[in-house]
Specification:
By secondary structure, the protein is mainly alpha-helical. Helices cover 61% and strands 0% of the residues. The chain is globular.
Length: 252
């Protein structure tokens, strides 16, 4: 794997990297099972934690059982497993979307294929859930994460590991955004205004997954997780001293 966080040429290291990421996600979701259940019990049917933990545990087993699989095969296998093992809407959303997005990794993991993967995944989640930003769903975490990742790679020309760190920060902000808004999709929408004040469990799971992807990438590169945020470095803050020196516009 190169210094920028990718193999760059679709080499066999891609598959093991994805397997390691899936294993890390499975461990994290299991550790957060009770927390996710508590979140879901407030606005749903209290099964999100158990369903996700079971599904990701099975997905990790399925990924480990593959022989010398490439990134696309691992991702597709994980997606299909999640579809079969995770109940409710989460199976198609997390798993079905992954099956479609996996095709973007047919040439390995590069900055370009990673962006394409992220965009396709978000598009499929939106389509399957018929959800947009502001509906209090996982889309509220994924959308800022994907947009930030894409801009960091394509416009700001940042190393992928830093771009991913920014995406995680954006997702964290998105999760916080779900708390003060009213749910408009899923079981939580039946609560109407009573859904306000509750953190969405799906968005929270998405954040946990992204955090583990970042941690695994940093570990495989043997670097610290970058300390950054979702602020773009290409749009610097205006210097207040310089701004005060500008002449006031003249009246017409």
């Amino acid at each position: 794997m190169s210094d920028d966080g990718t193999t760059g040429d679709g080499t066999s290291d891609d598959g093991p990297a994805v397997v390691a990421a899936v294993e890390a996600v499975a461990e994290r979701i299991e550790a957060e099972r009770d927390h996710l259940t508590q979140l879901d019990s407030a606005i749903g049917d209290a099964d999100h934690g158990g369903n996700m933990a079971r599904g990701w545990a099975e997905a990790a087993d399925a990924a480990r059982d593959l022989d010398d699989a490439d990134a696309e095969t691992v991702a597709k296998t994980v997606g299909k497993t999640l579809m079969g093992e995770v109940g409710g809407a989460s199976g198609p959303l997390f798993g079905g979307s992954l099956v479609f997005a996996a095709a973007e990794l047919d040439e390995g993991i590069t900055p370009e294929t990673a962006v394409a993967f992220a965009e396709t995944y978000l598009e499929k989640v939106e389509d399957r859930g018929d959800a947009r930003v502001g509906d209090q769903t996982m889309v509220d975490a994924l959308t800022p994460a994907v947009h930030t990742f894409k801009k960091s790679i394509e416009t700001d020309d940042l190393p992928p590991i830093e771009a991913l760190a920014k995406a995680v920060d954006a997702a964290e902000r998105g999760v916080a955004f779900t708390v003060p808004i009213r749910a408009r999709k899923g079981r939580a929408s039946y609560l109407g205004w009573r859904s306000v004040g509750h953190q969405d469990p799906g968005a929270t799971s998405a954040l946990f997954i992204l955090e583990e992807l970042l941690a695994v990438a940093a570990a495989r590169l043997d670097v610290d997780v970058p300390e950054t945020d979702a602020t773009s470095p290409t749009i610097p803050d205006e210097d207040p001293d310089e701004a005060s020196d500008d002449p006031a516009p003249e009246d017409d």
